[in-house]
Amino acid sequence: MAAILFFFLLLSANFLATTQQGHFNTSLGSSLTPTRNSSWLSPSGFYGFGFYQQGNGFCVGIFIAGIPQKTVVWKANRDSPPVPANVTLLLTGGGRLILQSAEGEETSIVNTPEPVAKASMLDSGNFILYNSDEEIIWQSFRNPTNIVLPGQGLLAGEELYSSVSETDQSTGIFRLKMQHDGNLVQYPKDTPDSSAYAYYSSSTYGRGDNVSLNLDGHLYLLNYTGFTIKNLVPGGYSTEETIYLMKVDADGIFRLYSFTTNQSNMSIVWASSDDKCSPKGRCGLNRYCVKNDGDIYCQCLPGFAVSGERGCQ
Ligand SMILES: *[C@@H]1O[C@H](CO)[C@@H](O)[C@H](O)[C@H]1NC(C)=O
Ligand SMILES: *[C@@H]1O[C@H](CO)[C@@H](O)[C@H](O)[C@H]1NC(C)=O
Ligand SMILES: *[C@@H]1O[C@H](CO)[C@@H](O)[C@H](O)[C@H]1NC(C)=O
Ligand SMILES: *[C@@H]1O[C@H](CO)[C@@H](O)[C@H](O)[C@H]1NC(C)=O
Ligand SMILES: *[C@@H]1O[C@H](CO)[C@@H](O)[C@H](O)[C@H]1NC(C)=O
Ligand SMILES: *[C@@H]1O[C@H](CO)[C@@H](O)[C@H](O)[C@H]1NC(C)=O
Ligand SMILES: *[C@@H]1O[C@H](CO)[C@@H](O)[C@H](O)[C@H]1NC(C)=O
User: Fold this and answer.
1) Taking the complete model, does pTM exceed 0.70, yes or no?
2) Which atom of ligand 7 is least distant from the CA of 264?
3) 69: CA distance to ligand 7 center in Å?
4) Below-50 pLDDT ranges, the chain
């Protein structure tokens, strides 16, 4: 029933307009379970915070609920395994957002510096926790995983990490960092911020220490006084019926995606590289990357033999 409703919302051109669909503010004592009342929706019903299925289990995150295939845009406790269907997500009376197992064991979903008074899933895709003075004490937009949504941005010092795969949102092997030196740079996950390891750079080094990446139909870098110092994806693509998101994909390339109300899948608007072998470390130890048509292969370096699934020794 709910799915049919979302599909209608999607098909109608103004599906982002406010309806009485979702929750406005979630109060203390509210709970979710994987199978019943599984998410808190934004007012339009487009974004949801709550449980989504992964394999035979469930994860907690934010997803686009308004399209047939739930697209996950943020994941809580990113590297924790999926949980069984008998757990409960609770905004406790004491102001903690936790996952409670059937046996009563508690895991924090978000650690906040002070008790939460209410939670809010906004139509922008930002999930916000407020204290009793109505001040924001935590928001998903400032704690990104692998995706940036319109209006979110990536501020100096922040970084995105790729996911393991399209279906597993655990931390993958690549990162994209908005550096304090003004440069937007991509590195393999466990390397220092040094140009020796970089495989993508916006070439905006030295343009001020608060440069940010912004997305609103096009993708651009702004300096602290609001001056556009670089358009990564020029043009004004944004229309009311088009949704955009930017993602560091599992293959290490970051891409701008769009979808319109008449299509079910995202399409690629722009990619940081057309060379799928460009991400450093793509093939792991002792292997190199080979291109063949659109596909890539990893081959062992001369003198190394294939050993197991991932490497050469
Ligand atoms: C879902 O939550 C609402 C409000 O908290 C409650 O009235 C309703 O009974 C719940 N539905 C199910 C199926 O648990
Ligand atoms: C909860 O589900 C898990 C996995 O299905 C199971 O092992 C566990 O016994 C269940 N706990 C309770 C209290 O039902
Ligand atoms: C939800 O809470 C926020 C923060 O206190 C407040 O600004 C907003 O007006 C509330 N929304 C509704 C619909 O009550
Ligand atoms: C932003 O860029 C403009 C134009 O280059 C420059 O005049 C301004 O000083 C820059 N602001 C900062 C904070 O670097
Ligand atoms: C960068 O932002 C911080 C915090 O907002 C501010 O204190 C600092 O002056 C900014 N730096 C520049 C060069 O504008
Ligand atoms: C969606 O609609 C737009 C405008 O009507 C059209 O240009 C585009 O080709 C359509 N896309 C698909 C996948 O049907
Ligand atoms: C949408 O994407 C899925 C998964 O990648 C694919 O199986 C399906 O064929 C795609 N559908 C269309 C209409 O492109």
Assistant:
1) yes
2) 13
3) 10
4) 1-20
What confidence tens digit (pLDDT) does each residue in 294-313 have? 788 888 878 777 766 666 77
Indicate which residue's Cα is closest to atom 10 of ligand 5.
210
Token pair for 216 = 């609103």
- The two tokens of residue 97 are 């957002």
Q: What does the alpha-carbon distance between residue 10 and residue 181 come to, in Å, rounded to a whole number?
A: 41
Which atom of ligand 3 is nearest to 24's Cα? 13
195 lines ligand 7 (CB under 6 A): no
- Give the span between the Cα atoms of 17 and 288, in whole angstroms: 49
Q: In what helix (H) or strand (E) does residue 2 lie, and over which residues does it extend?
A: helix 2-11
Walk me through the domains of the chain, giving residue ranges and CATH numbers. Answer: 10-142 (2.90.10.10), 147-273 (2.90.10.10), 283-313 (no CATH)
Question: Per-residue pLDDT tens for 213-228?
Answer: 999 878 999 999 999 9
Q: Which one-letter DSSP state was computed for residue 154? A: B
